[in-house]
């Protein structure tokens, strides 16, 4: 009665009525053509209580099950996928049957997978006395629980033998899902299963004697959870944002939307189809885009002319995308997500000046922005297709002008960077062009509106006089007589068209040495110029002078004068140190090394000449010896008693004429004990050799 391609995979007959399908798994060989209204196979269901209110549901809506259990195609079909599931429910029981559709060479492999037996003839051969056929259980079954799902049979007839079930789902986490009637071998499930949590359970069945000792087994018992469509498609990778260039050809791919369905991917429960539910906005066309129902690719379907960013209400479109399982049939579950599509700008509009000619006025001598040039551009302000680049192409030979883009307004800011001179030119005309940062598309070019003229008027202002040269330099000897002429300055008024007079004044004269004639600009001295003054730096004295015109208000110019002062020998050398100490019993009679310095410059300084003033008396007590051009050494000729002595010394520089400094070196002769020098008593004595000699001379005279 049934086609020969249909093979029955049957379990061993139960010894008693077990609610459910008598045959749970069917196998159909491809190729196979399903003919409309022709029975495919017969599904026998028995709830053991009369099948009251029996109802069948098929996973593929192109099939139905008649009241007598016949599976019938509703139309001619050649492709239905890899499997069909039939769910039967009565008032007292429910069960699931699976119809597998495989290639011819997969037949025996399918048999082995289901029965876990050796051989390829489709005939089960049990090495043991336990028959544990695979059990298929639909997920999400409704109470009551526990409910019987299968049965294990044993040919072992030992008295008191019991079945024992173990494994994940029994005595391993999650525990207590399955249990077995130790006498009858009925396997039952205690609660609803979730295929998405655990799809398969591998249990073991064994037979034990009354003492619990295994007498047969263990044998593997496979329990598979049959998928039901209990998971909606989900979009997990959002936000979904796509970009498409304006003017793109019809059929341009924008983006791909992909949803995920946790149901069995080999069934229609996870077979997704995509659809656009809503487009916002709906202009210029309510159907701007199309989505491939199978791949989820979103493509443009309007002409490039309609995909014009500048004419759109908004360059952003939002699409509500629906993903539906069960191949998109009405019974399928749905999930939605929003796709945002942005129409990207391309440079198809050149910038254009808002007018052909701009006017600007600027005062001479002033720098900065003088005018903002405005342009219009219909492209996207956030892109280089809108941002303007300005160039001065004529009228700027002296590079007195520059133009830069205001990044906020896109205006061209024209600036004066070199001060303009009214007396040279009172008017300037610039020719300026504007372009975009990004190049225009090939079929668009810059037109006459992308250039503009700027007319600039320079206003005359009263400019301050200018010294020539500035700074001014002159060389003079220091110590020239008061009233000497240093220099006559020269200042001119740039305002040649205005006939103005100039008067001069001193602005800064740190040492107060100078004066200036207010009319002719002659600078003279009012004091001696001293090269050694602290106001002179590196032999140069600096003063500032003002030139003031007769304008209203008057304008002022500043001139700088540098006077280089030549040195003359006007400073005597100085001697250092002026105090020396020595022990009265010193063995080294080299008392001190003297140095000399001079504020003047060479050759008015060293080499210095060191001399002792004439020593009176019968004995000479010291002498001075030159060490080099700047230093000499004082040496005692004998030990002296503790006292203070003043040694007259003269030092002479090498100037022409030379200058001599006569000074005294104070010598303290101290008592030294245990490396300590005591000079305290010398102050009381404070004997000058000169005074001693004079006293002796006076006594000598009185004796006569």
UniProtKB/TrEMBL annotation:
SUPFAM superfamilies assigned to the protein according to its UniProt record, in alphabetical order: Cadherin-like
Xref: Gene3D superfamilies: Cadherins (2.60.40.60)
Subcellular location field: Cell membrane; Cytoplasm
InterPro entries in the cross-refs: Cadherin, Cadherin-like_dom, Cadherin-like_sf, Cadherin_CS, Cadherin_pro_dom
Membrane topology: Lipid-anchor; GPI-anchor
Residues annotated as domain Cadherin: 162-235, 236-353, 354-467, 468-575, 574-685
Pfam family, one: Cadherin
Entry GO terms, CC: adherens junction; catenin complex; cell surface; cytoplasm; side of membrane
Source organism, top-level taxon: Eukaryota
GO biological process: adherens junction organization; calcium-dependent cell-cell adhesion via plasma membrane cell adhesion molecules; cell migration; cell morphogenesis; cell-cell adhesion mediated by cadherin; cell-cell junction assembly; homophilic cell adhesion via plasma membrane adhesion molecules
Keyword Transmembrane: no
Keyword list, A-Z: Calcium, Cell adhesion, Cell membrane, Cleavage on pair of basic residues, Cytoplasm, Glycoprotein, GPI-anchor, Lipoprotein, Membrane, Metal-binding, Repeat, Signal
GO molecular function: beta-catenin binding; cadherin binding; calcium ion binding
Subunit structure: By contrast to classical cadherins, homodimerization in trans is not mediated by cadherin EC1 domain strand-swapping, but instead through a homophilic adhesive interface which joins two elongated EC1-EC2 domains through a region near their Ca2+-binding sites to form a tetrahedral, X-like shape.
Functional summary from the UniProt entry: Cadherins are calcium-dependent cell adhesion proteins. They preferentially interact with themselves in a homophilic manner in connecting cells; cadherins may thus contribute to the sorting of heterogeneous cell types. May act as a negative regulator of neural cell growth.
Protein name: Cadherin-13
Organism, scientific name: Smutsornis africanus (Double-banded courser)
Annotated gene: Cdh13
